[in-house]
Write a structure and sequence with these properties.
alpha+beta, ATP-dep_Glu-Cys_Ligase-2, Circularly permuted ATP-grasp type 2 domain-containing protein, 15 helices, CP_ATPgrasp_2, about 500 residues, UCP005522, Rossmann fold, globular
Length: about 500
């Protein structure tokens, strides 16, 4: 089960569990492999019965799939998580300031920190938003920041997801499944709860309502049942107690958004939109969109409705802009980044591009605006023909590619048909930003279920684990003191 080639999340060596995992490993020692498999079957049956699914576009075996889940949790100690949480707060705060600056004064460009052409050529940059600033200057109300560990055991930020990040519903369902299938082991483990997320999300949305609205009304806007994350849209709407709507359910009159109901029109103040920018408003973006609401952007710019996340936020999760996030943090906050980036080469820079082309067989090449693991070339595992095609694409469009060293992602024990084996994992914590910043404890641990694979995305054969962030055994006060200490250290750095 233990592999010396990667950092293992549960074991420091073949016979020694890491400190946060020690109690769990001791309890697991009394569980047989057959019993573990029975618990796995029970978890999968619950997922199926509850309709907890995701959609895979173009899959030969069908569209809707039961959410893949592994019963062994990923465990993170309270002290380590305090540093991660502080780093996430810092990063999201700086990125919100960056986006507001980019669409307004553009001081960071004038001061030469971020190149102007990098912004102007970003496919996710929306010039229609120039001069706009949302309530609380919160552009990214909901962020999903992907973290990975390399062999050194240090957390690195792999990418920022600031448009319509998905996966948080599976975090909540994973926890419920663990409580059902592993109740005897779960109890007494001092796991930080995650169940308050929907309440925190609703608070963030309502706090972001236009000024002067006494009792704001929020809705979740979905593109419909065929979207890959439709389960999540329905789940979050139900958990928050708000309406799930589609574009046809909304209308704009005199720059105000209304929802059609059996009792007439009701004014809507906040829209948690799960529709991409291009399809939000056929009057402003794609004319052929039938998913959005005509006039929605007029209402937004008039200050009559808040869109979460705000259109245009994607400029900050462009993978070429990602390379500048450490400088963005330093520029806006005068702090050193708490969480480091993965070293990144931007191919639009001639010198860096030549280095990438000369070392393609050692690097991972990523398109700057793809998601879900698509378009990635793993140099050390690619064929000569694939590397040649990759080089051609880079030369033809250098702005749209970055390259990074191939990380040896950390592993976690995972139940397979052959027993417990290490599988590579990453972590997507979720961050809410409104009047305040809230970080969900833990997040979505994604696991590459295929042996040796580094691709953790569910659309490409990945699964998930429940993520346990342990509370401070000395008590909540110590947790707050540690978090305060780390935040204070970051502010004075």
């Amino acid at each position: 089960m233990y592999s010396t080639d990667s950092f293992d999340e549960m074991f420091a060596s073949a016979d020694v569990p890491r400190d946060p995992c020690r109690a769990f490993v001791e309890r697991l020692g009394g569980v047989t492999l057959d019993e573990l498999r029975n618990r796995q079957i029970a978890a999968e049956l619950h997922l199926s019965n509850m309709g907890i699914t995701f959609n895979v576009y173009g899959h030969e075996a069908g569209v809707e799939k039961v959410w893949p889940f592994d019963v062994l949790p990923r465990i993170i100690g309270y002290d380590e998580w305090a540093r991660v949480e502080a780093g996430l707060r810092q990063r999201v705060k700086a990125l919100n300031l960056f986006i507001d600056d980019i669409y307004n004064d553009q001081k960071i460009i004038a001061d030469g920190v971020v190149p102007e052409h990098l912004i102007q050529t970003a496919s996710s940059y929306r010039p229609e938003l120039r001069g706009f600033s949302p309530t609380n200057k919160a552009w990214c109300h909901i962020s999903g920041v992907d973290l990975v560990r390399d062999r050194d055991g240090v957390f690195y930020v792999l990418e920022d997801n600031l448009r319509c990040p998905s996966g948080v519903s599976y975090v909540l369902e994973n926890r419920e499944i663990m409580k059902r299938t592993f109740s005897t082991i779960f109890q007494g483990m001092a796991v930080t709860p995650v169940e308050q997320y929907p309440e925190q999300l609703l608070r963030t949305l309502l706090d972001s309502a236009p000024p002067g609205v006494e009792s704001p009304l929020a809705v979740v806007l979905t593109p419909g049942v065929y979207n890959s994350a439709y389960f999540e849209h329905t789940f979050l709407a139900q958990q928050m107690g708000v309406e799930l709507v589609q574009g046809v359910d909304l209308t704009v009159i005199d720059d105000v958004v209304y929802m059609r109901t059996t009792r007439g029109l009701r004014r809507i103040d906040v829209i948690y939109r799960r529709i991409d920018d291009d399809f939000l408003d056929p009057e402003c973006f794609r004319e052929d969109s039938v998913l959005g609401v005509r006039g929605l952007m007029r209402a937004c710019r008039a200050g009559n409705v808040t869109l979460a996340n705000a259109p245009g936020t994607g400029v900050a999760d462009d993978k070429a802009v990602y390379a500048y996030v450490p400088d963005i943090i330093r520029y806006y906050l005068s702090e050193e980044p708490i969480l480091a980036n993965v070293p990144t080469y931007v191919c639009w820079d001639e010198q860096q591009r030549e280095h990438v082309l000369a070392n393609l067989d050692k690097l991972v090449v990523k398109p700057t605006n793809e998601s879900g693991g698509y378009g990635i070339v793993l140099g050390p595992r690619a064929s000569k023909e694939d590397l040649e095609k990759c080089a051609e694409r880079i030369r033809a469009n250098p702005r749209e590619h970055i390259a990074q060293p191939m990380l040896d992602l950390s592993t976690a024990p995972t139940l397979t048909s052959d027993g417990l084996e290490p599988r590579h994992v990453d972590l997507r914590p979720f961050v809410l930003a409104g009047k305040e910043i809230y970080v969900m404890p833990g997040g979505l641990t994604r696991v590459a279920l295929v042996q040796g694979s580094m691709i953790v995305n569910s659309s490409q054969g990945g699964g998930s684990k429940d993520t346990w962030v342990l509370r401070d055994p000395a008590g909540t006060d110590s947790w707050k003191a540690l978090t305060s200490h780390i935040n204070g250290s970051a502010a004075s750095a």
